[in-house]
Write a structure and sequence with these properties.
Strand order of the largest sheet: 6-7-5-4-8-9-11-10
Number of strands: 11
Structural class: alpha/beta
Order of helices and strands: EEEHEHEHHHEEEHEHEE
């Protein structure tokens, strides 16, 4: 059996199944739909009400879906801002991933077929840019992909105003969700910065509060009761 293999979710978009962990990368109810709800609608769109220069830190690059939806949404927002004679949004996006996908799996993902045509070249950009380098994919959008675990991240504090926490579930990779890592995320955030995650386990929320976050209940994606949004106030 392949360690990582493709699966089709209910909205037609691909996710990946990790046989070693017996876990998928996204909800079986819809990979694209889940990512759009949790990270774009509940995260990105909420934070741009406070900040016009976004610095995003992502735990778990995975298939690149969150980055792709963020990049495409950024492009759409700036096109609208230009037509409204408003200053453009800027984004610095740093993503960590200890287990990057092999090219064959990347090429088989069907996001380009399901999303608007403007997303196709963005998908290629995300996956062909080199690791460990800051690359300007579109004017004002910088991506840095880092091949590392959260435990090994060393960055200056208060660099980011949004964190996408998209690791495998706590019962699959408990070491990623430990209080030390959550405290690191808290230190990386600026005041009024937010962490968003599909996960809404009670222990996760208690640990976030223990390291300083303010946690508020938020409806979950695709029938889930809750997801997590947490702030550094």
């Amino acid at each position: 059996m392949e360690r990582v293999s493709l699966q089709v979710t209910d909205d037609g978009s691909h996710t990946l199944f990790n046989a070693e962990l017996n876990e998928t990368y996204h909800s079986h109810k819809g990979a694209i739909a889940e990512s759009r709800y949790v990270y774009i609608a509940a995260g990105f769109d909420a934070v741009i009400e406070t900040f016009t220069e976004l610095s995003i830190f992502e735990v778990g690059f995975g298939t690149g879906l969150n980055a792709l939806l963020t990049l495409g949404h950024f492009q759409e927002i700036n096109q609208q801002r230009q037509s409204d004679n408003k200053p453009p949004l800027t984004v610095r996006y740093v993503s960590i991933e200890p287990y990057p996908l092999v090219p064959d799996l990347i090429h088989r993902l069907n996001y380009q077929q399901l999303l608007a045509p403007s997303y196709a070249p963005l998908f290629d950009m995300l996956h062909t840019t080199p690791w460990e380098q800051a690359c300007e994919l579109l004017p004002g959008f910088w991506l840095t992909k880092c091949h590392m675990r959260l435990e090994h991240v060393v960055l200056s504090p208060q660099q980011f105003n949004l964190i996408y926490f998209d690791a495998f579930a706590p019962n699959k990779q408990p070491e990623v969700w430990c209080q030390d890592n959550l405290a690191k995320c808290y230190q990386l955030l600026q005041a009024q910065g937010m962490l968003v995650s599909y996960c809404a386990s009670g222990q996760f929320k208690r640990d976030l509060k223990a390291v300083g976050f303010t946690v508020k209940a938020y409806p979950g994606a695709l029938g889930k009761r809750e997801m997590t949004r947490a702030w550094r106030e």
